[in-house]
Design brief:
Elements lengths: L4 H27 L3 H26 L42 H25 L3 H28 L9 H8 L10 H8 L14
Helix pairs in contact: 1-2, 1-3, 2-4, 3-4
């Protein structure tokens, strides 16, 4: 596949990042204690392998990647999304001598890896010129979002992540600063009809 210089450099950085992610996940799957967290890692792992292999193919094969990433739906597993569902875990302190990571440390490391990967895919999706690679980065971004949501919900359930409702008065003050733009007028409807092809709606990404 002929690619631009900036695409080659981006793919190299993204592939090296994936080497790090997969290596860390391989360690985690062997050392994690909580069956729920282990099942999350095992479910995610094959897609990270696919993600990595596609990038290697983009760099090495004239025809580009021969497989595709699935576009994942996000599954809401918490009963509500403004308050913690478990007691907050004890305060954490970085360890300076580590033989094995515990589950909390591994979950934190994995979530932060997914967030970083998502930002990189989103940024590079804006930069890619080749439509196939651009689409790959967009789909990989959505994969990172879905996996991060799984992991974040797990951490909330374990008390590893603080979740609290926003102050209602503050939200009302913010909301009072803005008014809706009418979308039903003929001019706006005409603009909506003159769009690029639409693949679906945002509610298809969660269930």
């Amino acid at each position: 596949m002929r690619i631009a210089a900036h695409e080659a450099n981006a793919l190299n950085e993204l592939t090296l990042s994936c080497v790090n992610s997969i290596t860390n996940m391989g360690y985690m799957i062997q050392h994690v204690q909580d069956p729920e967290f282990k099942s999350i890692l095992q479910r995610h792992f094959p897609l990270h392998i696919r993600d990595y292999n596609m990038k290697v193919e983009f760099l090495n094969k004239r025809e580009g990647a021969t497989t595709e990433l699935p576009l994942l739906k996000e599954e809401a597993k918490l009963n509500q999304f403004t308050e913690m569902v478990a007691p907050q875990a004890p305060p954490v302190q970085p360890r300076t001598v580590v033989e094995n990571m515990n589950d909390r440390e591994m979950a934190t490391a994995y979530l932060l890896t997914l967030k970083r990967a998502g930002r990189e895919y989103a940024w590079n999706a804006m930069e890619m010129a080749n439509p196939e690679i651009r689409s790959f980065c967009q789909t990989a971004f959505m994969m990172s979002c879905s996996h991060a949501y799984d992991t974040w919900q797990y951490m909330v359930k374990k008390g590893y992540y603080v979740l609290e409702p926003a102050d209602e008065m503050a939200v009302q003050k913010m909301g009072s600063m803005y008014l809706l733009v009418p979308e039903a007028n003929p001019q706006m409807q005409a603009h909506m009809m003159n769009q690029n092809p639409i693949a679906g709606q945002s509610n298809q990404l969660y269930q």
